[in-house]
Design brief:
About 25% of the residues are buried. Helix 2 packs antiparallel against helix 3, helix 3 packs parallel to helix 11 and helix 6 packs parallel to helix 12. Strands 9-8-5-10-11 form a 5-stranded parallel sheet. Strands 1-2 form a two-stranded antiparallel sheet. The chain is elongated. A hairpin with an 8-residue loop joins strand 1 and strand 2. With about 375 residues, the protein is of the alpha/beta class. It folds into 3 domains: about 70 residues, no CATH class; about 140 residues, no CATH class; about 140 residues, HUPs (Rossmann fold, 3-Layer(aba) Sandwich), CATH 3.40.50.
């Protein structure tokens, strides 16, 4: 059956929304009759059930007409406005990434897009959309609540903030060049630079630069002997090796003779400095201390309390040289929260909390 249509324009002077009505006539289907719906659009109702296919098509058309008018007049339901807003934000995001791709650098666009696709980036982006959606819905309470959550999440995962906080710990040691020092009788390597991999091999972890620097010092003739510290906490570590033993294993595989490595205990930095202070206080030996740069401030304070004055040898910096300015792409990527930045901020918070607790204990 054919469903050909012709259109005629009928004036509706009494209509509050439109002065014209488009009426569609079905040329070969007299069983169909036009109806005028609430939006002054034509809705088709089949007179019989003999044409179910056309009926379904026309029903869908009626529903589309009923939804289109509120969107065009600005009276759309909140759900529709929110979806429309999120769609627009998505389009804007794609356009911005495309602009970076074509006019700045393709690899920068890929890096930024990857950051947005990571778990923290997705949560951050959805929070951003939710703020605009709540504002569009006119709910100020939810808008301010989401804004506070967004600011907190952005701060905790922000690369710029993470770099600034870690620099506050690393700055005092940024001018030290460990491989340009005078030879040491002993070089202490604090534990935490090695862990056990899934294949049962001891491997360098995020703090592995401690072990690399220690091996470099030994092979450069700047360390007479190395002392690896660290004892596992049985309730927190199910393995059978202490952290000092893991460090020793990695160092021997880096070419340091086992005879040149000593093992020392200590379940935390406080215990390690207490033990080493008892050994080296007032001995006159030249001792170097290797640990992560962001960890040195607290360790040096602990050493001082135990009458121990080793030479700081920083490793594992989280910041680059101060003379190297970040690029535009790095700044944009740094604004997007990332779990790596959260890890850095957690380390910084741990150090400052440890120093605060130490001061309180010392005050007592």
């Amino acid at each position: 059956m054919r469903c050909d249509r012709v259109s005629s324009v009928v004036p509706l002077s009494h209509s509050p929304k439109s002065s014209l009505l488009v009426v569609n006539h079905t040329a070969s289907s007299p069983g169909f009759k036009p109806e005028v719906n609430a939006y002054n659009a034509v809705a088709w109702r089949p007179a019989t059930t003999a044409v179910p296919l056309c009926s379904r098509v026309l029903t869908s058309w009626n529903q589309l007409l009923e939804r289109s008018v509120p969107l065009s007049t600005g009276n759309a339901p909140k759900e529709v406005r929110i979806l429309r807003l999120m769609f627009r934000m998505g389009v804007v995001t794609v356009i911005l990434l495309a602009g970076v791709w074509f006019f700045y650098d393709r690899m920068a666009a890929q890096k930024i897009a990857t950051s947005l696709a990571m778990p923290c980036g997705v949560i951050w982006y959805l929070l951003s959309c939710s703020i605009f959606a709540a504002r569009s819905a006119g709910n100020s309470k939810i808008t301010w609540t989401l804004a506070a959550i967004w600011l907190t999440f952005t701060g905790l995962g922000n690369g710029i903030l993470a770099g600034s906080l870690s620099y506050s710990l690393e700055a005092p040691y940024s001018e030290i060049r460990p491989l340009e020092q005078q030879p040491f009788d002993y070089v202490i390597v604090l534990g935490g630079g090695a862990s056990e991999g899934a294949n049962d091999r001891n491997q360098g972890n995020g703090g592995g630069d401690r072990l690399i620097l220690a091996a470099q010092l030994y092979h450069a003739g700047l360390a007479g002997k190395l002392i690896c510290t660290g004892q596992r906490i049985a309730s927190m570590d199910a393995s059978s090796m202490d952290t000092s033993e893991r460090s020793q294993d990695v160092l021997t595989r880096l070419g340091v003779p086992e005879s040149a490595i000593e093992i020392a205990g200590g379940r935390n930095s406080s215990e390690e400095m207490q033990s080493l202070g008892q050994r080296f206080a007032d001995t006159g030996q030249r001792v170097g201390l290797v640990t992560s740069a962001w960890h040195l401030q607290r360790v040096m304070r602990l050493a001082k309390r135990n009458n121990f004055a080793p030479h700081p040898l920083p490793a594992d910096f989280t910041n680059g040289p101060a003379s190297t300015k970040p690029t535009w792409g790095q700044i944009v990527q740094g604004l997007i929260p990332h779990e790596g930045n959260m890890t850095v901020i957690t380390k910084v918070a741990t150090e400052y909390l440890g120093m605060l607790v130490g001061r309180l204990r010392n005050a007592d």
